[in-house]
Amino acid sequence: MSNVSYDDFAKLDFRVAKIIAIEPIEGKSRIIKGKIDLGNDDQRDVIIGGAQYFQPEDIVGKIVIVLANLEPKKMAGVESNAMLLAADVDDKPFWLTVDKDVPLGSPIK
Question: Which of 13, 51, 68, 101 is the least buried, fewest Cβ under 10 Å from its Cβ?
Answer without folding.
Answer: 101
